[in-house]
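Before we proceed, please read the two lines closing this message. Tell me what the token row says about the fold.
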Amino acid sequence: MIKLRTNDLALLDGKPVFLEKLHVGRPNIGNREKFSERVNDILDRRWLSNSGRYMQEFEKAIASYVGVKHCIVVTNATIALEIAIRALGLQGEVIIPSFTFVATAHALQWLGVTPVFCDIDPQTYNIDPARIEALITPRTSAILGVHVYGRPCDCDALEQIARRHGLKLFYDAAHAFGCSYQGQMVGNFGDLEVFSFHATKFLNSLEGGAIATNNEELANRARKMTNFGFTGYDQVDGVGTNGKMNEVSAAMGLTNLETIQELIAVNQRNYRQYQQELEGVPGVRVVAFDEAERNNYQYLVLEVDEETAGLSRDQLTQLLHAENVLARRYFYPGCHRMEPYATLFPEAAARLPETERVTARMLCLPTGTGIQSAEIIQVCELIRYMLVHGMEISQKMSRISKGPAQ
């Protein structure tokens, strides 16, 4: 139990509760002995890249776990999105949410395709199917959904819209490996889906990503593009890039995949503990997962209601950072307020009211194997104290920001 007074808070001249920083997305490390064994085998074989043994095993293991016909692993999820865009032959405009990591928009813009930002459903934080059709123009070639926080989009509604208008449909599933929608694993929806195995993801391959699809033609096209367009020893049939995953990354991915249920169990335990500890705390709500579906519980997300809490989300973030709890404002301020999009689409905020509201309220807290149960209790005690005394703390923060009277 932390005994606090307002002046004990680190931002108000006290000392931080945590000496070491607690990160959101601190990398999970699987069985080190097994990983080292695989790395030694890679070095003994002297086969470090170019579709080696472990890359092929990792692809098969992912496809089996997800229940998808084809998986192409690549260097990272951004490259996966770019290859997907090229493999789908997209041009013109693609409708996407602004409430996502900026790489979702950048992958399109990088390839000369215009992202058109759609508002989100305030309950799911995912792209709102009811707002998509008003944005479709003769230049629209696809819809790109994002399974935010691992909570899947309304895939049925998006599929109907895409079919009705003859559009491609694909998903940024960077958050959603190991999750399901109506009992079917994410990875099986739309024309294809893209996973991330970045170091901060609960399942990491040091750095990496993957394209999952049940479309053989798309899979073959994407695989060629991943390797410079090569289709034979000296034969290149089209433009490609170097998106190949190296063997050490694949070995890390395989090693972590073998312990995926343990990683999910830790995330679920943390999620339930945060729920319990923060129940009844004024002004915050732990974003819930659908327990009828499979979840990875990768993100522990709070929605902060400033009116009830007495503190804004940003003030709470400042206070927690001073205590070495490095909470993250996913996804602030929204892609439409980042460059080049803020300049290209200055009117976007006016048609994204829910995105504007939500970006000011969401806060992700540390979870995963990098945080212990006792630390979660301390984090929650801090949050509880800060919000119970929100008005008092807010006033003191305001005086500090104004500085001494002249």
